[in-house]
Amino acid sequence: MKVVITEKPSVARDIATVLKITDKKKGYIEGRGCAITWAFGHLVTLLEPGEYNPDLKRWSLDSLPFIPDEFKLKLIENPGVAEQFETIKRLCQEAEEIVCATDAGREGELIFRYILALSGCEAKPIRRLWLSSLTPDAIKEAFKELKDGHDYDPLYAAAKCRSESDWIVGLNATRCFTVRHGRLAAGDDRVLWSIGRVQTPVLAMIVQRDDEIAKFRAQPFWELTTKYRDVVFKYTGKRFKQPEKAQVLLDKITGQPFTVTGVSGKQKKEQPPQLFDLTTLQREINKSHGLSAADTLAATQNLYEAKLVTYPRTDSRYLSADMKPRIPKIFEQLKAIRAEQIQPLNLAKLPFTKRIVDDKKVTDHHAVIPTGMIPRSLGANEQMVYDAITTQFIAAFYPICIKKITTIDGASEEVKFQAKGTQIIEPGWSVLFPKKKKKKADDGEDSEQTLPTFEKDESGPHEPSMREGKTKPPKAFSENTLLGAMEAAGKLVDDDILREALKERGIGTPATRAAIIETLIRRNYIRREKKQIRATDMGRCLIALIHDPLLKSPEMTGEWEEKLKQIERSEAEASGFMNGIHSYTRGLIETSTSAKLDTDRLGDCPLCGKEIIKGKTAYGCSGWKDGCTFVLESEYKGLQLTPNQIQVLLQMRVLPYPVHIEGQLRLLLLSTQGDLMDIDLPSADRQKKMEPNTRPAQKR
Questions:
Q1: Could you tell me if 441 and 231 are in contact, meaning their C-beta atoms sit under 8 angstroms apart?
Q2: DSSP letter at 306?
Q3: Contact at 8 Å (CB) between 422 and 267?
Q4: What is the 3-state secondary structure (H, E, C) of 168-215?
Q5: Which residue of 178, 237, 359, 571 is surrounded by the most CB atoms within 10 Å?
Q6: Which listed CATH number (3.40.50.700, 3.30.230.30, 1.10.1040.10, 2.70.20.10) goes with 220-269+401-470?
Q7: What digits encode the pLDDT tens for the residues 272-317?
């Protein structure tokens, strides 16, 4: 008997329908010498430390780092999992051949192999079904091309390394920081400081951006503009930091004629948009409609299971060459709902450029595209996402957009000005997208103003003016820009090889980035403020506690991701990767538990970085003569701070244990603006709801 294991029941039903297997049993469908069964995503996980040794149920620094000699597996504690696993196990033990039909990727491979390992069936012959679409034709084609399951051993090795390394670093770091910095009182109840290989660098990026915004001080500037023939011309020199210098030029040209000194134009060709991968889809939907990354993924997954779009969790924006014959057929089907948009395309001669088809840039899966099947009734989010995917797909095959950029140079009394205008010559693909709101011609920014015809050397009166403005702070992350930072984290590292790895995969994967954001929100480390993503006090406090720069840097994620990719390609050994993880974790625990204050100094000023000095009743910055205003009082809301506490706050920016303030246990944090603030701690009950099954055990 052949047994097929899918990742979820709906996929099993789709495969059963195509293979004409109809006899439904409890937990599987059988017929024609085949049984199709399913998981519910991950059924199997790694054991907790206390399941290796009961003494490890109690969290202590003495037991760290804990690195198992051999990782062991168990079922996830979830209703229905045990019963379904027993069904899968029995079928696998009876099987002559087992087909892996879980999601075609690293995590899908891990789900299948963990099930196989826990059921004791690793020695059975296995085959691999690789699906990028759930349409009947795609399923039939994939079953004709079943691969030897062991061809994917390197993929499993990479997935296993990812799982075990996250466990080792996350568990040891979380226990270390919770025990060292999370004590609430004399008992064992603690604040859980959750640390992860991926989530912590993301949190650090958000905290850093918030700090940059908080530290920013707006500086005034003055700009010179003039209006000639109702067109705004901007001064070509730099902004003025003093109004007097701008006023000198303004006085010089007021009442004097304006002369056009040059007229030039050039064509600009804008290529059609590329197809979506998951991250660019999530970013576009968040930018245009405000939908979260998690909601966009959920909607796209629903569309995939409804056979309307291809596999969503992809990091590729390209199609493979073998898909070329299928594309015209998809367009023919889509004519039922997009006839007007498809009509300009010559389906017999579609432009399969390198921006669309490139086998070298197709990873586990090709770009997200419509399958051609026509939707009947969709929810609001699903309709929104389907429309975006379909429009992007059509636009990718449209002609380029050609614009004419006209530049007009002018001067008055040798003070030079310039104006630019844009005219669309051939709209091409841009006709498929709503026009973006144009900037006003007099807003002081580069604009898309429509220019009249100018002649060189023409001259006439003009209206010069001076405008005051202020420099703007960095923008807070939105979900769109945060996803972009996670995807292109190469901007945050110096190493070219790491940058390339992050350029391709970034922090996290397309499949996990939305979950990372939601996890940080659930753990009260970040919050949504309308369209912005901001760090909470708890999030800032955690980053202040972490003094290992690698733990909160995208560099570590990039280095690990590059090595995991090498393992996938059989270019590196899993053992070498894991040995590196073991060494890193041992070093992390050693430095985190042995970190000491510099007792010879108080600390640095959070505002200017100079040395802090002690006064009679307060502490201040040694740079006070240069204008620094930082002062830290010895008393805060009735709490008399000890010299040691002052030193800790100045050097660590956070008091790593709660103190009683106005009758409540609070955490003290010294902000980057130099303000002392106290942070509310989540109650034990509330944190248990946030983090089920992860609280430290009580002493026995």
A1: yes
A2: T
A3: no
A4: HHHHHHHHHHHHHHCECCCCCCECCCCCCCCHHHHHHHHHHHHHHHHH
A5: 178
A6: 2.70.20.10
A7: 999 999 999 999 999 999 999 999 999 999 999 999 999 999 989 9
Single out the catalytic residue among 156, 311, 398, 619. 311
Q: How many residues does the chain have?
A: 700
The tens digit of pLDDT for each residue in 466-475 reads 999 999 999 9
Out of 97-111, 254-268, 596-610, pick the least confident. 596-610
When pLDDT is averaged across residues 212-231 and rounded to a whole number, the result is 95
Question: Is residue 545 within 8 Å of 648, Cβ to Cβ?
Answer: no
Fold of 2-145: Rossmann fold (3.40.50)
311 a catalytic residue: yes
Residues 6+ apart with CB under 8 A from 188: 696, 698, 699
Cα(194)–Cα(694) distance, rounded to whole angstroms?
A: 9
Share of the chain above pLDDT 70, in %: 91
**Which residue intervals of the chain bear CATH 1.10.290.10?**
278-396
Look at residue 404 in the predicted model and tell me its pLDDT: 95
Statement: the pTM of the whole predicted model exceeds 0.85: yes
CA distance 559 to 562: 5
Domain boundaries for CATH 2.70.20.10 within the chain = 220-269+401-470
SS (H, E, C) 651-675: HHCECCCCEEECCEEEEEEECCCCC
From the number of C-beta atoms within 10 Å of its C-beta (0-12, 13-18, 19+), residue 641 rates as buried
Separation in Å, CA 496 to CA 238, 562, 671 = 33, 12, 33
* Structure confidence at residue 671 (pLDDT): 83
Alpha-carbon torsion angle 349, 310, 511, 299, nearest 10: 120
Task: Read off the tokens for 120.
Answer: 């004791």
pLDDT at 14 over 70: yes
* The predicted structure's pLDDT at residue 692: 38
Q: Which top CATH class is 174-215+485-507+527-594?
A: mainly alpha
- Helices 554-568 and 496-504 pack at an angle, to 10 degrees, of 70
Please tell me the predicted confidence (pLDDT) of residue 611.
92
pLDDT tens profile 468-526: 999 999 999 999 999 988 887 756 555 555 544 555 567 888 888 999 999 999 999 99
Q: How many CB atoms lie within 10 A of CB 113?
A: 23
Pairing of strands 2-6, 34-38: parallel
Question: Residue for token digits 């970040």?
Answer: 526
CATH code at 278-396: 1.10.290.10
d(CA 335, CA 374): 10
Can you tell me the distance from the alpha carbon of 678 to that of 115, in angstroms, rounded to the nearest whole number?
47
d(CA 153, CA 568): 8
Contacts of 552 (CB under 8 A, 6+ apart): 200, 201, 203, 204, 543, 546
Span(s) in the chain for CATH 3.40.50.140: 2-145
Is the pLDDT score of 444 beyond 50? no
Contact 204, 553 (CB under 8 A): yes
Mean pLDDT of 343-371: 94
